[in-house]
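FAQ

Q: What does a record look like?
A: Structure on top, sequence underneath. For example:
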């Protein structure tokens, strides 16, 4: 395989930068540009060691003072010879070192190519490779934890166990077909059905875990809606603990959406402040109101905020109707002032009610608690169970389940035993696409194209 190189640290200025190189010629290329303070033959250098010295150019001029980490095959991230040049941060220095590596025989790595090598060389499977990018992109501790579990192989182990069970069943079917004189089809059918029921339990558990996985990975889309000056932007600022949205006494200040992420019990919430819902007076505000209604309909949960010191009007009733069939929390704002609102219609909406003051901050913790209760956030991924969070995995698990159900029904209907072989092979095929045993090259390339350069 070729020797690849890339800058592995994010663009910009930092204290330390890293240039990563992997391939059979890594150490030969390094030898041409790195002058260690203590000379030592590469054969004498142990893996997992660091040497101090200088990177030099063709004129033997010092480019930078560096530390170089050595990783010898097969005990490296890619299972190949690898080195990581830790230089001073900053793109000028890192690009100079990168150019020297390229001039001396290395090729510029593609996005995710180091992890792709690790997969192709058998150090990790495809689901573990996908976990790497999930760890990098994790927005919360919980998301990082489930990705780390997947990197450690908990999903791979479960998939491998199921595939072994199905392969064993196929062997039994082949034996029954090859030796019909022993009349063991009924016994085999019974054993296969029992095994498939156990497999179905495991697949159902994985499929059901996706709902929690989706919440952990994508977060909860949370729309704040209300009529103008109800306190939507003030609530957003309170939640974010900063003056993110403009707050004035003038109605219709918010024309477009403002989106930010926060965490509640380790789960990301995508908070969206929207334009005040009312009969808009100009075209721009009309667009904002229309967009607010669309976002509310599309959100996972709605926070409908009402000014407790103003009587309900038609716009408030429109908001109550909007949230009637959605996960929603009603916030009664400005409890620090005297109430002037008849709560009869609000209570009829049969939604959790939180009394709050964006001015005094009273009630904000209760709002978080209500969101947590609705989604049972404290319990999600709290016990280290297997969580499926990847859309690709979910689709493949669903396909495997569909074939499993057909195989079960075939046995129940007492169809010839060889008919279910095709369905069992499909289960093996679909689950193998998760770990990479049966996946196409196009899918592999698509997955690794989503990685960052240098990983």
């Amino acid at each position: 395989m070729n020797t690849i190189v890339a800058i592995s640290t994010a663009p910009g200025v930092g204290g330390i930068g890293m240039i990563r190189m992997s391939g059979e010629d890594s150490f030969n290329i390094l030898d041409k540009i790195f002058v260690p303070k203590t000379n030592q033959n590469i054969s004498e250098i142990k893996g997992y060691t660091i040497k101090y010295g200088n990177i030099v150019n063709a004129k033997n001029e010092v480019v930078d003072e560096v530390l170089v980490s050595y990783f010898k095959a097969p005990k490296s991230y890619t299972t190949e010879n690898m080195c990581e040049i830790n230089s001073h941060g900053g793109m000028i220095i890192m690009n100079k070192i990168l150019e020297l590596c390229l001039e001396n025989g290395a090729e510029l790595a593609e996005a995710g190519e180091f992890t792709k090598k690790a997969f192709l060389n058998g150090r990790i499977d495809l689901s573990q490779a996908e976990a790497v990018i999930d760890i990098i992109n994790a927005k919360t501790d919980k998301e990082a934890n489930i990705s780390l579990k997947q990197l450690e192989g908990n999903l791979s182990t479960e998939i491998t166990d199921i595939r072994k069970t199905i392969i064993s069943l196929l062997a039994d079917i082949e034996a029954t077909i090859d030796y019909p004189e022993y009349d063991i089809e009924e016994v085999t059918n019974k054993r296969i059905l029992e095994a498939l029921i156990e497999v179905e339990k495991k697949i159902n558990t994985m499929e059901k875990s996706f709902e929690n996985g989706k919440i952990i990975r994508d977060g909860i889309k949370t729309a704040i809606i209300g009529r103008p000056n109800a306190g939507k932007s003030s609530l957003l600022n309170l939640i974010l603990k900063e003056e993110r949205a403009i707050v004035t006494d003038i109605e219709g200040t918010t024309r477009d959406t403002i989106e930010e992420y926060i965490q509640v019990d380790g789960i990301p919430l995508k908070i969206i402040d929207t334009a005040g819902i009312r009969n808009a007076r100009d075209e721009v505000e009309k667009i904002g109101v229309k967009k607010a209604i669309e976002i509310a309909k599309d959100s996972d949960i709605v926070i409908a905020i009402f000014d407790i010191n103003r009587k309900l009007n038609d716009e408030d009733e429109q908001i109550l109707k909007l949230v009637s069939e959605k996960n929603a929390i009603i916030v009664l704002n400005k409890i620090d002032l005297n109430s002037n609102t008849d709560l009869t219609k609000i209570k009829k909406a049969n939604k959790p009610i939180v009394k709050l003051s964006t001015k005094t901050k009273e009630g904000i913790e209760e709002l978080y608690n209500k969101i947590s209760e609705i989604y049972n956030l404290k319990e999600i991924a709290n016990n280290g169970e297997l969580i499926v969070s990847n859309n690709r995995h979910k689709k493949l698990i669903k396909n495997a389940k569909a074939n499993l159900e057909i195989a079960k029904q075939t046995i129940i209907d007492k169809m010839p035993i060889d008919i279910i072989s095709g369905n069992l092979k499909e289960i093996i095929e679909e689950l193998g696409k998760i770990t990479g045993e049966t996946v196409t090259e196009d899918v592999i390339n698509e997955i690794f194209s989503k990685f960052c350069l240098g990983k």
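Q: Is there anything notable about this one?
A: The two ends are 17 Å apart (CA to CA).
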